[in-house]
Amino acid sequence: MDRTRALTLFLAVVRAGSFSRAAVEAGLTPQAMSKAVRQLEAHLNVRLLHRTTRKLSVTDEGARLFELADPGMRMLDDAVDQVHASREAAGGTVRVVAPPSLGGKLLVPLIRDYQQLHPSARFDVLLDDRFTDLVEARVDVGFRIGTSAERSVVARKLRDVRLVICAAPAYIEEHGRPASLAQLLKHRCTGFRHPNTGKTMPWELQKGNEIVYQEVPAVATFNDVATEVEAVRSGIGIGQLATYMIQRDLDEGALIPLLPQLSTARLSVFMYYPQRTQMPSRVRRFVDFVIEASRQ
After folding, report:
1. Distances in whole angstroms, Cα of residue 5 to Cα of each of 10, 99, 166
2. What region holds the HTH lysR-type domain (predicted)?
């Protein structure tokens, strides 16, 4: 016997005052309602209802059970309704994780534009270079930069990322412009130290149809992408930087691209989330918004 179902049907019969009316409300037959109550009586070994052809009445034990169980069942129904309502609402908190380099350049504009459409939406943002297990961390949506998405999640490619060798006009004016990779290696360059491994990352270069990795002696190494961008912008040295971090600088001439034939576009920005089904509305709407924004 499904005790919860039997108890729910018993409460419905008492509220309605008859098996037939309760059956209509529950979408069942009177016989099914009566059978469920009889099973509950047998389970409790007590009579809950007096039945006659003309009248239905509640026994003392039935009245006691109704008095004790009905408030709790109503609270349970309210809890389920509230969870369902929150799932369908656009408001609520969306928990997001992304590497720090995407925080200001990607997430902040997305959050700003999304909240203009849904002012009640709230965001809890975690910036972390590591790939985050969304379920374990109780995160709704993640963003990362890579070559492919993890198989354990649903992922959407948002944009390609080109790595560009560039320098500030002031650096070029003082040190000149390298015309080849050999000349580049004699220049002052910046480097990036991966915050998780502690290793300085080699530059990724396109040579013909191949991608090669070149160790570049750096005059300054950073474990934060935004700080390396600022260093290159200030003229400390030549850097290899991602276009999503410096596109405005390139457009406005604050940074000058060098050796464009060596630039690569192997990486992409991905959005990922645990599953497509049973996604709360607050998450689904944000995911759909991000996908639509990536098309523009």
Report:
1. 9, 48, 69
2. 1-59
280's tokens:
């709360």
pLDDT in 10s for each residue of the chain, 296 residues: 688 888 888 888 888 888 888 888 788 888 888 888 888 888 888 888 887 767 788 888 888 888 888 887 777 766 655 555 554 455 678 999 998 889 988 999 999 999 999 988 999 998 887 766 665 667 889 898 887 656 667 888 998 999 999 999 999 999 999 999 999 999 999 999 987 788 899 999 998 889 999 999 899 999 989 999 999 999 999 999 999 999 999 999 999 999 999 999 888 999 988 766 667 888 899 999 999 998 87
User: For strand 121-127 and strand 141-146, is the pairing parallel, antiparallel, or unpaired?
Assistant: unpaired
Closest CA to 44 of 28, 71, 66, 13: 66
Q: Where do we find the tokens 């990486």?
A: 267
Domain 162-265 sits in which CATH superfamily? Answer: Periplasmic binding protein-like II (3.40.190.10)
Helices (H), 89-224: 100-102, 108-117, 134-137, 169-175, 181-184
Tracing tokens 């650096």 back to the chain, one arrives at 171
Nearest to 175 by CA among 215, 219, 212, 206: 219
Tokens representing 164? 């560009």
Q: Is the pTM here over 0.90, yes or no?
A: no
Burial class (CB in 10 A: 0-12, 13-18, 19+), 152: exposed
Instruction: Indicate the CATH number for domain 3-88.
Output: 1.10.10.10
Q: CA 265 to CA 236: how far, in whole Å?
A: 25
Residues 11/71, Cβ–Cβ less than 8 Å: no
> How is the chain split into domains, by residue range?
3-88, 92-159+269-294, 162-265
